[in-house]
Amino acid sequence: MKLHSLELPLGKNQQIPKSPKIVLVVAFTLLFLVVVPYYTLLNYPLYLLKNPSEPPTSYDSQDDLVSISSSDDCDLFSGEWIPNPKAPYYTNQTCWAVHEHQNCMKYGRPDTEFMKWRWKPSGCDLPLFNPAQFLELMRGKSLVFVGDSVGRNQMQSLICLLSRVEYPIDVSNTPDQKFARWTYTSYNFTMAALWTPHLVKSKDADSDGPTHNGLFSLYLDEFDEAWTTQIEEFDYVIISAGHWFFRPMVYYENRQRVGCHYCLLDNVTDLNMYYGYRKAFRTAFRAINSLENYKGITYLRTFAPSHFEGGLWNQGGNCVRTKPFKSNEAKLEGQSLEIYMAQVEEFRRAEKEGKKKGLRYRLLDTTQAMLLRPDGHPSRYGHWPHENVTLYNDCVHWCLPGPIDTWSDFLLEMLKREGVRSYEERLQFLSDRKLNAR
Ligand SMILES: *[C@@H]1O[C@H](CO)[C@@H](O)[C@H](O)[C@H]1NC(C)=O
Ligand SMILES: *[C@@H]1O[C@H](CO)[C@@H](O)[C@H](O)[C@H]1NC(C)=O
Ligand SMILES: *[C@@H]1O[C@H](CO)[C@@H](O)[C@H](O)[C@H]1NC(C)=O
Ligand SMILES: *[C@@H]1O[C@H](CO)[C@@H](O)[C@H](O)[C@H]1NC(C)=O
User: Fold this and answer.
1) Do 22 and 116 have their domain in common?
2) Does the N terminus or the C terminus of the chain have fewer Cβ atoms within 10 A?
3) Membrane-spanning regions, if any (predicted)?
């Protein structure tokens, strides 16, 4: 589908009204970009900004500058999967961070082609992840994954990709792996996970529930302090949520029960899952924008669709494909589209609100790329055949190595572009203030 032709109510197609002043500022920016050496502007060593395959000596500052800034306009998230025979870059033997249920090779997955693809944006190239470059950019910084097991899946993929350079040490302050914390000592880089599948305060009201799949109470207007009290110290926060909202839930607002999603309780209004999902994100972003000392950059990692075919997850559905789709073979629709739209709309709201405080929000818009990867899930190779696990055929998480490794390609590219983008936004912010002051 053409995700990017969608008109979002608060979407990216909004134009800043042009005034002579802004044109002037833009002209000045360009001049500045050309005159001032790139590396001082970004505070990154020069070699970091280069394509790792090119020797540093071939650097021609002006030419590269132009190509870097023009490719900044390219939409990274719209494209195709193309073959990459050199992948993967780690195995379950070289990386201990592969989660048991995503260790597909251990459990006998027979095909390996699903590991051998890379993402090619339509308008440019997305460089493959360079672990040394990533760690250098993260020197002295910290990054946290806020969300559920798909967020953890991404963190473990990142640990494995980085393992070619360094393994982290465990500095968790709890044995609960849902709140794991890692440090890369040579880089003074800390990475953590904070578990919050619903983003808001929730409790398991009935572990059996009407559908025998749990029944959660969600307090849609209350912060989940398990993460909201923890993120102020982080420089980068990657937030995500999704699959837990498909389950039965009872919604509370103002401590009053306001409805539910598929709870099958007498006299309780059945609101849909999008109602809770939207409100949960609204509250999560409100928490972030209300933090006194938070100065980090917030990335929304957008919903990664599951790929059950031939039935629902608990009714024999499975994912047995061994190749990606082409972009014209799959379309984001139904529940996945609704979920995607709800979170992006809430993101735009929060971004607008956060801007007033100088907070930065970025969209790690992985949905379209992952929609095209029905072949990347564990299916029945996330456990031994005789094991009784909740996800009989797991078409939600992603095998490691596998397509989720690409999220680190996206992340690194966004981090590399961040210096320029932050700088331009700062100029915009200052010029807006000047205009307002007149
Ligand atoms: C890794 O995968 C192989 C199959 O490719 C399997 O035999 C082995 O047990 C796995 N090792 C670990 C540590 O998971
Ligand atoms: C490590 O990074 C933290 C910020 O994340 C900083 O406060 C601390 O001073 C750094 N330590 C060293 C030894 O550089
Ligand atoms: C639901 O509402 C009906 C009619 O108002 C009432 O008779 C019944 O007791 C209610 N059931 C519950 C579980 O509250
Ligand atoms: C698997 O677990 C379900 C629910 O816990 C139970 O009903 C079923 O009998 C179990 N199946 C096996 C093969 O143990």
Assistant:
1) no
2) C
3) 21-41
> Pick the residue with more confidence: 31 or 424?
424
What is the per-residue pLDDT across 339-387, written as a single tens digit (0 to 9) for each? 999 999 999 999 999 999 999 999 999 999 999 999 999 999 998 887 8
Q: Is 71 helix (H, G, I), strand (E, B) or coil?
A: helix
DSSP state for residue 222 in the 8-state scheme: E
- A 10 A CB-CB count for 329 gives 10
**Distance between terminal CA atoms of the chain?**
45
If one counts the domains in the chain, the total is: 2
Q: Which atom of ligand 1 is nearest to the CA of 98?
A: 14
Catalytic residues: 149, 394, 397
Q: Considering the domain boundaries, does residue 145 fall inside one?
A: yes
**Span from the CA of 388 to the centroid of ligand 4 (angstroms):** 6
Together in a domain, 238 and 114:
yes
- If asked whether residues 170 and 283 sit together in one domain, one would say yes
pLDDT value, residue 332: 97
Q: Is 241 exposed, middle or buried (0-12, 13-18, 19+ CB in 10 A)?
A: buried
Please tell me if the CB atom of residue 186 comes closer than 6 angstroms to any atom of ligand 2: no
Asked if 245 and 386 sit in the same domain, the reply is yes
Contact between 191 and 144 under an 8 Å Cβ cutoff? The reply is yes
**Same-domain check for residues 123 and 51:** no
Measured by CA distance, the residue closest to atom 10 of ligand 1 is 106
- The CATH number for 320's domain is 3.40.50.1110
**188 ligand 2 Cβ < 6 A:** yes
